[in-house]
Design goal:
The protein is mainly alpha-helical. Helices cover 32% and strands 6% of the residues. It has 20 helices and 14 strands. α2 packs antiparallel against α3.
Length: 753
């Protein structure tokens, strides 16, 4: 028998530790395996089912999959944006995604692991439906039912939202179905799915209002979803529905509905205790510390909590791995390399876009000179909290030398020095050469420019991780991080409302909302907003999208924004999709969102990386820690100054003591005065370093540049081969071939009502 999107066998319900176990969500850790309907007659049993749903449905720090949204890694989503280089399958010009084969298959965001109820998309929905039915029919009090059902309805909406944004129309299943031959669930229109999601979110908001609209959850319950969480996700859904991806004719009524609804419901979000996080520290310290605040955080509207428990398979261990992923290798991490494109696109200190980027042509260009050789001068305060460049402090709690004796040992004074040198002079100007070696024992792990966003910076807050060396290799060694993961934060609530206001032609209100976000990081007055944003809708929308790109960099939001605004080709190529109806043509926004926004289409571009290598005067070095040509030069200088041999210099001083004599102190972002430190570092760069372009996106076998190519049928995905085999009665999306019908063109129109 072939199952058509119906999942069975709830019987086994494993109660795993909720992601918020650090706050003791589960007081009663009973075993709910082999659970039956009787559990719904007890608060503890209902809580067990609810917590199981949390555990399976909360976002995690993982690459994009059908289970979890992107969270800022160099995954399928991140590598389809300006944030990372290296072609993802979505933008690779050499690959055309297929629904007919497992080779170059369109990603599966609809099926998951069909044979495992917890690992299948609709398996999770089935579990949720069972919990809704069981709790509704159980004998606990109505007040207790309302609190639990309010949370469960949110997660059903969350599951469907993560289908809706990829496919538009999907099967809607609201009951626990038995495996009866011939039962199937047809795809519903995108509008029907949207309405269903909104209905569940309204139920969630209403049921949770009495419990959460007086400041939100407290104590051990902090981290649970609230009325505000439901309404914030509702705003995101309304915004998606009004966006060009689903609103090809720019029906203004959708924008007005989004605007009036979101504006009316913002007070309810605020009543749950949410607002912009601001610690009052220097140089946008809030933009760092808010991601690592383990106590109640007003910014965190939808959050996954973690702990720093060390163990090996313990049911209460839930560690955040982001810190370990972004820290440099000489601080026991692995590091993530940002693209030069995003570094160069970030605003200048006056809030305006740097000259020469050519990306947002309707936005005002900064009068501050942008010197690419010292890209940290005069930048938006968030720049320093987003990127890690040579010469900036990046303090942590601990000592990395147990991993390698050559590593810097004083984490509390750690400064990133990831400049490079080469072993062959011919490689110094070769963008494809991989023969660079990084200072301070980074060697082959220098990473050019590091992603620093969401880092647990010891200069900004009390670290939420335990940095230790374990010989047992347990858990998240070396970073047992308790930093939370924020999927939806209050800044997005404001910018979602700003975008809806702009779409509804409330331009002044939209600009004021953007200002609120910028004021949090230190902007004043007009906050660097392009003056025309208050009078020209396209400029206003462009300003908002730019703000979203900067504010949410490396949070997994950019790819969704680029898809819903059709920023790869402006939506100009839907007519090339075989079988696409006339209604798919973009008739709003002048027929091209990129032209209307003044945004350079992402298709046809490429992303490179950058690094800072030692200047030619230092020559080449070797492959070892102490072969850094700057270190060699410094030893020679000290030898001359003190009248001792180089060997005696190395005996008298450690490597790091020598380097402290020839490198400036690391820029300390916790000091209120930054300009003097940056000027000093810039002068050192000019004397000692050269910005070098490193190959980012692919080149072909002839070393010829290749360019981003996101195809128009990727905006709304088709079902892969496996999903079509499992659901043979399902219609395939227009623009994709139907595996079960011998490759016939898909007939399902997600945009049809």
């Amino acid at each position: 028998m072939r199952n058509s999107f119906k999942y069975i066998g709830l019987g086994l319900v494993s109660l795993v530790a909720l992601s918020s176990c650090s706050d003791q969500f589960l007081e009663d850790k009973k075993n709910y395996d082999n659970a039956n309907k009787d559990i719904y007659n007890y608060v503890s049993g209902c809580n067990g089912r609810l917590n199981d749903i949390y555990s399976w449905c909360l976002p995690t720090v993982n690459d994009l999959t059908w289970k979890y949204p992107s969270m800022g890694t160099a995954d399928l989503a991140g590598k389809s944006t300006e944030e990372y280089s290296g072609f993802s399958d979505f933008v690779n010009p050499e690959i055309q995604l297929s629904s007919m084969s497992s080779t170059n298959s369109v990603p599966d965001f609809i099926m998951g692991t069909q044979s495992n109820i917890q690992e299948a998309v609709y398996g999770r929905i089935r579990n949720i439906n069972d919990a809704i039915k069981g709790i509704s029919e159980g004998s606990i009090s109505q007040a207790e039912k309302d609190i639990m059902l309010g949370q469960i309805y949110f997660f059903r909406a969350w599951c469907y939202y993560n289908l809706f944004k990829w496919y538009g129309g999907v099967p809607i299943v609201t009951e626990v179905q038995d495996p009866v031959e011939g039962v199937s669930n047809p795809r519903q229109s995108a509008k029907a799915v949207k309405d269903f999601i909104l209905s569940d979110l309204d139920k969630s908001a209403k049921l949770l209002a009495a419990k959460t609209m007086n400041g939100g959850w407290t104590g051990k319950d902090y981290g649970r979803v609230t009325t505000g969480t439901a309404l914030a996700l509702k705003g995101r859904v309304l915004l998606l529905w009004a966006s060009p991806l689903f609103n090809r004719a720019n029906d203004e009524s959708r924008w007005k509905e989004a605007y009036t609804t979101m504006k009316a419901e913002k007070d309810s979000i605020d009543a749950c205790g949410y607002h912009l996080y601001n610690d009052g520290g220097a140089n946008a310290s809030s933009f760092s510390s808010m991601f690592c605040t383990t106590s109640a955080n007003p910014e965190a509207v939808f959050v996954t909590l973690y702990n720093s428990v060390v163990g090996d398979g313990l049911d209460n261990q839930k560690n955040n791995t982001w810190e370990r992923a972004i820290r440099p290798a000489n601080a026991a991490g692995s590091g993530k390399n940002t693209s030069a494109m995003l570094v160069d696109m970030f605003p200048m200190a006056d809030g305006k876009i740097p000259a020469g980027t050519g990306t947002y042509t309707k936005l005002a260009t900064s009068s501050d000179e942008y010197d690419k050789d010292v890209p940290f001068l005069n930048r938006d305060p968030r720049f320093y909290r987003t990127f890690g460049l040579p010469g900036f402090r990046w303090a942590y709690k601990g000592d990395a030398s147990p991993w390698n004796a050559d590593n810097p040992s004083d984490g509390s004074n750690y400064t990133l020095w990831n400049y490079t040198w080469y072993t062959d002079v011919n490689d110094q100007g070769n963008a494809e050469s991989g023969n660079a070696y990084g200072a301070d024992n980074l060697l082959k792990s220098s990473r050019g420019v590091f992603v620093r966003k969401k880092s647990d910076d010891a200069d900004a807050n009390s670290p939420a991780y335990t940095f230790i060396k374990s010989n047992e290799g347990k858990g998240a060694d070396p970073y047992y991080s308790a930093a939370p993961l924020i999927e939806l934060r209050y800044a997005e609530v404001l910018l979602n409302l700003a975008e809806a206001a702009c779409g509804a032609n409330q331009l002044q209100e939209a600009v004021e909302l953007v200002k609120q976000v910028r004021e949090r990081v230190g902007y004043t007055g007009d906050c660097g907003i392009t003056p025309a944003a208050t009078s020209d809708q396209a400029t206003c929308m462009s300003q908002i999208l730019y703000e979203r790109q900067i504010e949410f960099a490396y949070e997994g939001k950019r790819f969704d924004d680029m898809r819903r605004w059709l920023l790869y080709d402006g939506g100009a190529n839907f007519s090339s999709i075989e079988g696409a109806p006339a209604s798919w043509k973009l008739t709003g926004w002048g027929g091209n969102t990129c032209s209307w926004l003044g945004f350079k289409p992402f298709n046809g571009q490429r992303r490179e990386n950058m690094e800072f290598r030692l200047a030619d005067k230092y020559g080449v070095g070797g492959t070892t820690f102490a072969s850094d040509p700057l270190y060699v030069e410094a030893c020679n200088q000290i030898s001359t100054e003190e009248g001792i041999t180089v060997a005696e210099v190395k005996q008298k001083y450690t490597y790091y003591q020598v380097m402290a004599k020839v490198r400036p102190a690391g820029v300390n972002l916790s000091k209120s005065e930054l300009s003097e430190q940056l000027t000093t570092l810039a002068a050192w760069y000019k004397d000692n370093l050269v910005r070098k372009t490193r190959k980012g996106d692919n080149r072909d076998s002839q070393h010829t540049d290749e360019y981003i190519n996101f195809r128009p049928n990727y905006y709304l995905l088709g079902f892969p081969q496996g999903a079509m085999q499992a659901g043979a009665q399902l219609q395939q999306t227009i623009g994709w071939q139907n595996y079960t019908q011998g490759g016939a063109n898909g007939t399902f129109d997600p945009l049809a009502n």
